[in-house]
Amino acid sequence: MIYITRVLYFSAAHSYKIPSWTEKKNKLIFGPCSNQNGHGHDYKLEVTVKGPLIKESGIVVNTNDIKYVVSEFLERELDGKFLNKEHPFFKKEMPTTENLVKYIWDSLENSLEGCSLHRIRLHENHYLLSEKEDNEMPRITRRYHFCAAHRLHSNQLSDEENLKIFGKCNNPHGHGHNYYVDVTVQGEIDPTTGMILDLNQLDNIVDNTVIEKFDHKHLNLDTEEFKELNPTSENVAIVIYNMLSPHIQGLLKIGIQETEKNYFEYFGE
């Protein structure tokens, strides 16, 4: 089975507001997204299809065919629109990233010939994306950031072994990174809010549990979690997952971007 991803873009405006709620409750749940005049995004859409290789042509499907079908759908239904006001579905349903990705999935699932839809991933901005895979519940990923120093050094290895494995990252004084933490939650979409979970609550949990503890710290010297544990990004992902899992229902995985070249994921046990 071969998997192919085509990336497309569209722009749209939307607003999160439940008319039966008070202004205060809407703002509490949706924050600035409850502005009745709306706001907008440049969305990045990743469409991943799968299928067997056609030996004669060496392809599964012509990527231009994917582009044509998806582009025609986007231009007809989403691009350049104020979704709440102009789209029949989103006049009734909240145009959250979760609802959008599910709607796009349902619209495209049977429209591609010679292949089948594997995943739809929709980036609302650099810090929020939603995705839907075949036979899976939707997911939402929120990205967070902290700055920290660390030294890669294991107490279970000799000094020579540590230097050989970790090189300059074994510098006794440490070094540092801009860490990006992706928190992915999977679950059913709430029919009222159109969200898998309250993002304000998620932000508070992650900020209070992880970011405040690690931001602008030396992980080896300033945190209990890494005083005896080598703060590799693999271990950072595991530690953060275990810190958050008691507080976040449906937590699927933690992703850690240590540098532009290195990314790590942990899905729990």
Keywords for this entry:
Tetrahydropterin Synthase, Chain A; single chain; 10 strands; 8 helices; ten-stranded mixed sheet; alpha+beta; 2 domains; 269 residues
Helix/strand/pairing category: alpha+beta
Name the shape in a single word: globular
CATH topology of the largest domain: Tetrahydropterin Synthase, Chain A
CATH architecture of the largest domain: 2-Layer Sandwich
Number of separate structural domains = 2
- C-alpha Rg, in Å? 22 Å
How do the helices and strands follow one another from N- to C-terminus? EHEHEHHEEEHEHEHHEE
Enumerate how many helices there are, as a single number.
8
CATH-level-4 superfamily name of the largest domain:
6-pyruvoyl tetrahydropterin synthase/QueD
Instruction: Using the coordinates above, name the CATH class of the largest domain.
Output: Alpha Beta
Report the count of strand segments.
10
Average pLDDT level: 96
What does this structure look like?
The two termini are about 25 Å apart. The chain has eight helices and ten strands. Helices cover about 30% and strands about 30% of the residues. The protein folds into two domains: about 1-135, 2-Layer Sandwich (Tetrahydropterin Synthase, Chain A); about 140-265, Tetrahydropterin Synthase, Chain A. It has about 270 residues and is of the alpha+beta class. The longest helix has 16 residues, at about 200-215. It has helices spanning about 25-30, 65-75, 85, 95-110, 160-165, 200-215, 220, 235-245; strands at about 1-15, 40-50, 80, 115-125, 130-135, 140-150, 175-185, 215-220, 250-255, 265. The mean pLDDT is about 95.
